[in-house]
Design brief:
Largest sheet: 9 strands, mixed
CATH architecture: 3-Layer(aba) Sandwich
Strand order of the largest sheet: 2-1-3-4-11-10-9-6-7
Catalytic activity: N(2)-formyl-N(1)-(5-phospho-beta-D-ribosyl)glycinamide + L-glutamine + ATP + H2O = 2-formamido-N(1)-(5-O-phospho-beta-D-ribosyl)acetamidine + L-glutamate + ADP + phosphate + H(+); L-glutamine + H2O = L-glutamate + NH4(+)
Pathway: Purine metabolism; IMP biosynthesis via de novo pathway; 5-amino-1-(5-phospho-D-ribosyl)imidazole from N(2)-formyl-N(1)-(5-phospho-D-ribosyl)glycinamide: step 1/2
Protein name: Phosphoribosylformylglycinamidine synthase subunit PurQ
CATH topology: Rossmann fold
Shape: globular
Radius of gyration: 16 Å
Order of helices and strands: EHEEHEHEEEEHEEEH
CATH superfamily: Class I glutamine amidotransferase (GATase) domain
Organism: Streptomyces flaveus
Distance between the termini: 13 Å
Number of helices: 5
Low-confidence stretches: none
Number of domains: 1
GO biological process, one term: 'de novo' IMP biosynthetic process
Strand content: 25-35%
Length: about 230
């Protein structure tokens, strides 16, 4: 039976169709989820895609966090359901307190769009098992509020527990503390990152490489092995 992976669309989401395509290329079935619906349609995992939910009013992800669909996602994530937050999705996960820390405006105060080199720091999460720890990958990045911040105690905890999932290499594009590009929760089922793996799944688009596809094959492998 094919794994079903939900992709949530909020007002202002941009990358829901791209994410659905990436899931399909990995061999799973993408399921469209609407922000007003609490019903997750019996999906096995959920992706919160990139964009500017609710126009980033108040703060990026701050309003989307209270959408009806998030009530169910928060409950299911705490029970072990895999959830991936990409860019705006990462911001929503921090606002929902499924991941620690928060996101602020880029330190240079400009929107940035570029191919970004990353290092995989944790290859044991539900979304990263098809990578190797220490592997270097190139993933497109596009954001205005991508600066990851947390207090020193939280940062030390993330480092000590191996919960920094990805780190920027060569260039820190937004001033994120400790070059953090993505993190995971303690259980490893919830992962958030600012770069966009869904834009690096086919040789003809994005970086011209498929460095992002293992995100989606990882979750498929994880669900099949459950």
């Amino acid at each position: 039976m094919t794994a079903r992976i939900g992709v949530v669309t909020f007002p202002g989401s941009l990358d829901d169709r791209d994410t659905q395509r990436a899931i399909r290329l990995a061999g799973a079935e993408p399921v469209a989820l609407w922000h007003k619906d609490k019903d997750l349609k019996q999906v096995d995992a959920v992706v919160l895609c990139g964009g500017f939910s609710y126009g980033d009013y108040l703060r990026a992800g701050a309003i989307a966090r209270f959408s009806p669909v998030m009530e169910t996602i928060i409950e299911q994530a705490k029970s072990g359901m895999p959830v991936l937050g990409i860019c705006n999705g990462f911001q929503i996960l921090t606002e929902a307190h499924l991941l620690p820390g928060g996101m602020l405006g880029n330190d240079h105060l400009h929107f940035i769009c570029r191919d970004q080199k990353l290092r995989v720091e944790n290859a044991n999460t539900a979304w990263t098992v098809d990578y190797d720890a220490g592997q270097e990958i190139n993933i497109p990045l596009k954001n205005m509020d991508g600066r990851y911040v947390a207090d020193e105690r939280t940062l030390d905890m993330l480092e000590a527990e191996g919960r920094v999932a990805f780190r920027y290499l060569d260039f820190n594009p937004n001033g994120s503390l400790r070059d953090i590009a993505g993190i995971t929760n303690e259980a490893g089922n919830v992962v958030g990152l600012m770069p966009h793996p869904e834009h690096a799944v086919e040789p003809l688009i994005g970086t011209g490489r498929t460095d992002g596809l293992p995100f989606f094959t990882s979750i498929l492998k994880k669900l099949v092995n459950v």
